């Protein structure tokens, strides 16, 4: 009977390991997808920040250059 009992626990343990292997693979896949989307969002935010800074700089140079050409009268 001890032999049957150990065989039962061994097969139970093998099933448990197979389940945990599938769980670990699933967790790695979900984690890697989440990590990729997070990195992608960060890169998109940095890109937008850079582009907005660049467009603001070009707009400010054109808008500040226009009033400087008008004559200033002092009283």
Automatic annotation (TrEMBL):
Region (Disordered): 56-75
Domain of life of the native organism: Eukaryota
Protein name: Uncharacterized protein
